[in-house]
Amino acid sequence: MAKKDVPPRWDRKMQQRLARGEAAALGELYDRFASLVHGLAHRVLGDERAADGITREVFIHVWEHPDSYDPRQGPLRTWVATLTHRLAVQRLRATETAALAREGSGTTEELEHRVRRASVAARADYIAQSMPVPLRSALERAYFQRRDYRQTAADLGITEDEARRRLRLGLQLLSTAHDTEAPGAPPGYGGAV
């Protein structure tokens, strides 16, 4: 395995500790990723209680099936996010399908459109949270503060060319939210909705 293909040491060690059944490892993993998991689930489902349920399901799955994570496939963070995304989309589909059957209003196409929209929004959130701070800072200034690249450059103390580069790269990363794979997931993790 090439140097760049070696998974982060923390990811490998965490997977090994979970496989040995170390409860402290699960607590450490929860502390590190609970806000990510809950945030993604809430973004897809739009419901605090449902997001709490998905958060529990994700960590139960990780505890019961630690070997389903393969460090060679990518970062543990991406695997956890992909699992969260998949479970949240399944829950949204089930909930919306039940509501459609009960109320009889709406179509399956509308249901799929709502699921797709929620899924893309969750992926965009994950991508934004995961991108390097310099890119995220430039995008936040441009989007939330309505700054152009010149103002962004001045705010960040960088050249205008660097500000344009950061904004372009950040937007390119965000544009991948429409892809059918889960946020940043390697093809082997199969995060399609």
UniProtKB/TrEMBL annotation:
Coiled-coil regions, chain positions: none
Keywords per UniProt: Sigma factor, Transcription, Transcription regulation
Signal peptide extent: none
A Pfam short name: Sigma70_r2
Residue ranges of every copy of the RNA polymerase sigma-70 region domain listed in the record: 29-94
Gene3D superfamilies: 1.10.1740.10, Winged helix-like DNA-binding domain superfamily/Winged helix DNA-binding domain (1.10.10.10)
Entry keyword Transcription regulation: yes
Keyword Magnesium: no
Domain of life: Bacteria
Family in the record: Belongs to the sigma-70 factor family. ECF subfamily.
Protein name, UniProt field: Sigma-70 family RNA polymerase sigma factor
